[in-house]
Amino acid sequence: MYNYDTLDIAGSALRAERLRMDVIAGNIANMNTTHNADGIVQPYIRKLVSFKTVMDEQTGLIKGVEADGVINDVEALNVVYDPSHPDSDDKGYVYYPNISIEEEMTDMISAKAAYQANITSIQTFKEMFRAGLEL
User: Fold this and answer.
1) Alpha-carbon distance values, 35 to 16, 80, 82 (Å)
2) Which of 104, 120, 125, 128 is the residue whose CA sits 20 to 30 A from 9?
3) Structure confidence by residue, pLDDT tens digits, 86-134
4) Cβ distance 77 to 46 under 8 Å?
5) In 3-128, at which residue ranges do the beta strands (DSSP E only) sit?
């Protein structure tokens, strides 16, 4: 019987990076959102994905990675003085989400590279397995 740990590890990383890409897309989509779903003035808070290593309890070996959760970024909101904006406070400031398109794009490139690396790992494993069967 063959051990498919390589596929399990790469597959778990693909799932985790897919979630990361979804969260990044949500951040970009909400980068100018100043209201919550109920229409109350409350800026969207940037979301981040927290990862954790999954260990095999019997062997102590790494089984993969998984998203530990989606958390709020603790960076300060972007504050802009614009007294004409309908969401400005009594001092004329508008609070926008703590999202930077440059940071989101950098994170997206990183997630894409990690995703592609795991796809390559799976393809290499399949080729090696196929070559082993041909022996």
Assistant:
1) 29, 15, 16
2) 104
3) 999 999 999 999 999 999 999 999 999 999 999 999 899 889 888 888 8
4) no
5) 47-55, 62-72, 78-81, 93-96
